[in-house]
Specification:
Belongs to the TCTP family. There is one protein chain. With 173 residues, the protein is an alpha+beta fold. The chain has one domain (2-35, 69-172): Metal Binding Protein, Guanine Nucleotide Exchange Factor, Chain A (Beta Complex), CATH 2.170.150. 27% of the residues lie in helices and 29% in strands. The protein contains three helices and eleven strands; from the N terminus they run ββββββαβααββββ. The strands form three sheets. Strands 3-4-10-9-8-7 form a six-stranded antiparallel β-sheet, with helices on one face. The chain has a three-stranded antiparallel β-sheet with strand order 2-1-11. Strands 5-6 form a two-stranded antiparallel ribbon. The longest helix has 21 residues, at 86-106. It is globular. It starts with a strand and ends with a strand. 28% of the residues are buried.
């Protein structure tokens, strides 16, 4: 299994149990599905279940304590961050880009840093264009200076998260 972690915080963002692909050259798009959660519920992914491929045993109706949640958010323990307006996101993005580039250079990935400098602006424009439709998620550490996952829904209401490729570190388990 491969776990994708935030290059800045080290928080888990998602794993390869989910279908993912390169999107718009600078993102990784991770496709999820809606499921339900309860506070006391044990997460089946901890026991090797594949929530993106298997049907949930629960439905949305019937249990008032069950809440709908995107499976990627649930299994990776992502935390919802406050929504950004365009101006606030611009400020966040500038500082975040500097941190990602510095971390890439520090880890000897200068080529990746240069690639990110070229691709980052297109990703920024994509996020700004869709900012009103997006929900923002941090890793479990809730560090808003770290990388974000950008949640949206496709035309079939299938949830997906976008992550900047350059901000992810692969860790094999």
């Amino acid at each position: 299994m491969i776990i994708f972690k935030d290059i800045i915080t080290g928080d888990e963002m998602f794993s390869d149990i989910y279908k993912y692909e390169v999107f718009e050259e600078c993102f990784i798009k991770v496709v999820g599905k809606m499921t339900t959660t309860k506070e006391e519920e044990l997460d089946s992914a901890l026991f090797g279940a594949n929530p993106s491929q298997e049907e949930s045993a629960e439905s949305y109706g019937g249990d008032d304590s069950a809440k709908p949640i995107v499976d990627i958010v649930k299994t990776s323990k992502l935390e919802e961050a406050p929504r950004f307006d365009s101006k606030t996101y611009t400020s966040y993005f500038k500082d975040w880009c500097k941190a990602v580039v510095a971390k890439l250079v520090e880890e000897g990935q200068s080529d990746e840093a240069e690639k990110f400098k070229k691709q980052g602006p297109a990703g920024f424009k994509y996020i700004k264009k869709n900012i009103k439709d997006l929900e923002f998620f941090t890793g479990s550490g809730m560090d808003v200076d770290g990388s974000m996952g950008y949640l949206n829904y496709d035309e079939n209401d299938t949830p997906y998260l976008l992550f900047f490729k350059a901000s992810l570190v692969e860790e094999k388990c």
